[in-house]
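Appendix B, example 12.
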Amino acid sequence: MAHRSLGGNRTGPAPGFTTCSVSGSVQDPRVVTVLRGAVTLAIPSRRTRIALLLYLGCMVGIHSGIWFAAREGVATGYQDFTIFYSASQIVRQGMGHHLYDEAVEWRIQHEVAPHVASRKAALPYMHAPYEVLAFLPFSFFSYGKAYVLWNLTNLAILAALPALLKPHLPALQHYRSPLWVLSFLAFFPVFLTMLEGQDVILLLLLYTLAFVALKKNAWFSAGCWLALGLFRFQLVAPFLLVMLLKKKWKLLAGSLLTAAGLAMISAAIIGWQGVIRYPHYIWSLEHHLGRSILPPRDSANLRGLIEQVFSSWASQSVILIVVIAASAGAILLLLRKWHCIHQDESQQLDLIFSLTLLVTLLVSYHGMLYDFTLLLLPVLVVLNRILLVRPSARSARIGPLAPIAVFFFSPLYLLLWYRHWEQSNLMALVVIAWAIALSREISCHRPAGNSRPAGDAI
């Protein structure tokens, strides 16, 4: 007997898969409701699992080789972690009011990493003041030890993600946590985040907590978690803008309340005058140094793609107009998909959340390759959905799955990042293709007997 799946009728497992039926272990009530107590899972065959493990191991091996080759530069202080470590040193030394003082930043960074010959000026700390508190405990250690401890913290966060997500991704529950972590480490953006000592894994945790909150219909809590991620403003603000346009007042209330608290914490660190001057500081930094520190063509998003295409013949004003138009178009198309989510269709919340995150990455002002770490959440959502029984036709799987295969192919990043850094924006094309595939997975057909949207319920 074939079970009805989230995507249609299934007549048998896809090649390389077997099926099993699960009922008691499924903790997501929406899945149980849809499938009337039985979830049929497509389980990869033993050969498929071995091939997958070998592939993931190869990707991790590539990353380990890169890390070994870069070990001297890491020890010297070439990585972005220098920015966060120096900022935490400034605050720990009681100079919070000088957190954005270039002369103080340069002095501290030179003390931390005096042998970085290529660094002739300070790497500016551009994130919100309150984020320094996350790095403050590491300031009590030497730079090398702090770098190691920060990455151990990142590993702990990655190890915690399975425990957070398994109750809400039933098809992935029987996969052991070590396999999850191996998959995470095989993802080049995660490796790059840890190599640079960046903070995107922390932001991934906050997005995951927001996702879990929404699965529990706790919109206010989700807003609180998202607001905590405003230290990466460009990677959270577009998501909150969509929530505003969708009138998700509970989520926005949580975000505003949390943001107000973070503003007070920031004021305690740098003073209210510093908080007031902070937007002007970011604007002036972008105006004078933005194109040299973070060239637009380096951004793996719509802005980077458009800059790549138009920069040789169009003015910056024209490029800006095109970027705004493209971003607005992407958000409008996303809003149309949000209108498809109805009262008893909350199983599609996974996809609309993932799609919103993809659009957020695409329309962000800056988007580096390590920011793709956030794609891990949509990857898990899509895999969960595909492992739940899907239509037997292979074509139904190619659209959502093919971009994942590309994202997990590390040599492609190496080609774009190391040899032709200016071409990293081409990865945005994969994100666009994936966003289109996910949007097609969201059905806009209203279920029988359901005539009204659920407001903050979905």
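The radius of gyration is 23 Å. The longest strand covers residues 17-22.
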